[in-house]
Amino acid sequence: MPKLELDEAGNLVTKANEKILKDIEVEIRTELLPEDIKEPPRAFGETLRALGPTFILAGAIVGSGELIATTLLGAKVGFIMLWAIIISCLAKVMIQEVVGRYIIATGKGLHEMLDEVPGPKIIVSWAVWWSILLMISLLVVMAGIFGSQGLALKGLFGGGNANIFGVVAGAIGIILLYRGIYGDLEKIVVTMVVGFSLITTFLAFIGLQFTPYPVTGADIASGLSFKFPAAGVAVALSVFGMTGLSANEIIQYTYWAKGKGYAAWTGPKGSPGWEERMKGWVRIMRIDLGLAAITYTLVTIAFYVIGAAVLNRMNITPGGFQLVDQLANMYTKTLGTWSNKLFMLAAFVVLYSTYVVNTAGISRVVGDGFIKMKLLKASSTTQILFWRRVFLIVGPVIMFILYYVFPSPAQLVVIGGMLLSLSLPIISLISLYINHKVKQAAPEIALGPVGTFILWLSAIVCVLFVVAGYIKL
Questions:
Q1: How deeply is 266 buried, as exposed, middle or buried, from its count of CB atoms within 10 A (0-12, 13-18, 19+)?
Q2: Are the CB atoms for 195 and 346 separated by under 8 Å?
């Protein structure tokens, strides 16, 4: 008869969930232990295997921000706002890096980090409450994604009920995420995103030149003129809120970086070789951030260019139940009508990756946040996992209800993106404080003068863009 084991709260621990609980513990534990120590890799192959957290975020970015919002902006205003796309992708990288440095330096998680932010407190810091409001904004975007993935499946199969397709896909996503293990998420998302990104980037930078929709030097020049046309302000704010890195992706990174092991592998402060390990894992994190930033920047520009070159010239502004069919013109007008099914499959893949990543992130941020606020009780890893699983179901249900009440995928994504943009100034200012905390906790890995200047510049750009956009509305 198998031996029964109980955790500290008296809950049964079986072999089936033992590994799950161990992986979850890596995400939530704030204490760095000697037995977790792992030396950072030096060899090329080992370094590649150590990458991954930011590519999970790329899976979230490519679906809502790139496929829908970025393409919609290009279709609406043409090339004129290419400059905003580039700035949106580059302006937030240093903000995310500071968050990563904090995790490696302290081993603390998202809500421990946010609870240290100065300001009003109601049980916890206002910043913890803000993280929950941020997830509510994200649910609006995800309602649009929920509907869009159903439309993509309808196009792929040539008929059927898009809402039923969306619900079935959503339920399968919950099952995939139920285990709650970081490694599962990384494998699913990276596999999903790579193919579509490569095809779309090829079309934008090479394929278009052999079609009736070539990109000229004049097009690119007009896109770098820093004009802000009134007709595209709302969509531009939405794009700025979602592309590159959104505020929700920056804070969710705390989970993916901890889940990968970057913080735990550093080991306790003061242990033999701690400083060298810490610097080594910061180096790995920066490679991870850099490669992912290059990837999503190229893909974002690619979607914008195709939207401006093809859809804008065809006078098509995607929206309504025809959203995915209209977006398919990006492929069919460049590769031929045969590529319609290819686009539908690819669109579903990236939309689904967005759904999977953000559903996982929402369940963690909200579940752990409510526990931190003492609105929910959890005294063990098993109970934390339980509440995460509850919100793993609650999130998609809310997405479906929002879509059912307001069945316009493009508008849901745009409205949600505008709400997300309001949080960019907040996370920008929080990052300045977090940078200060890193200098206190581990000055050995704090940003130098150049990095600090870039961080301040990034924060200023994020604040000014959002403020200027809402003034122009």
A1: buried
A2: yes
Direct distance between the N- and C-terminal alpha carbons of the chain, in angstroms, rounded to an integer: 69
Q: Which domains does the chain have, with CATH numbers?
A: 44-472 (1.20.1740.10)
Chain-centre distance for alpha carbon 391: 18
What span, in angstroms and rounded, lies between the C-alpha atoms of 340 and 329?
A: 8
Tokens of 419: 């709400």
What's the pTM value of the predicted model, to 2 decimals? 0.85
Predicted local confidence at residue 65, as pLDDT: 62
Q: Over 60: is that where the pLDDT of 324 sits?
A: yes
Helix axes 449-472, 93-106, angle to 10 degrees: 130
Residue 201, pLDDT above cutoff 50: yes
Q: Outline where DSSP puts E strands in 367-407.
A: none
Residue 320 in tokens: 């309504």
**Do residues 331 and 342 make contact, with C-beta atoms less than 8 angstroms apart?**
yes
The larger pLDDT score, comparing residue 192 to residue 80, is at 80
Where residue 335 falls among pLDDT bands split at 50, 70, 90?
Answer: confident
Pick the closest to residue 120 from 106, 111, 130 (CA basis). 130
User: Which residue type sits at 393?
Assistant: I
- Indicate the SS3 state at residue 316: coil
Could you please report the per-residue DSSP string of 228-284?
--GGGHHHHHHHHHHSS--HHHHHHHHHHHHHHTHHHHH-STTSTTHHHHHHHHHHH
pLDDT digits (tens, 9 = 90+) for 373-430: 999 988 888 888 888 889 989 999 999 999 889 888 888 888 998 999 999 999 999 9
CA angle at 289 for the pair 287 and 292, rounded to the nearest 5°: 105
- Sign of the four-CA dihedral 386, 181, 58, 402: negative
C-alpha–C-alpha distance, residues 111 and 125, integer Å: 9
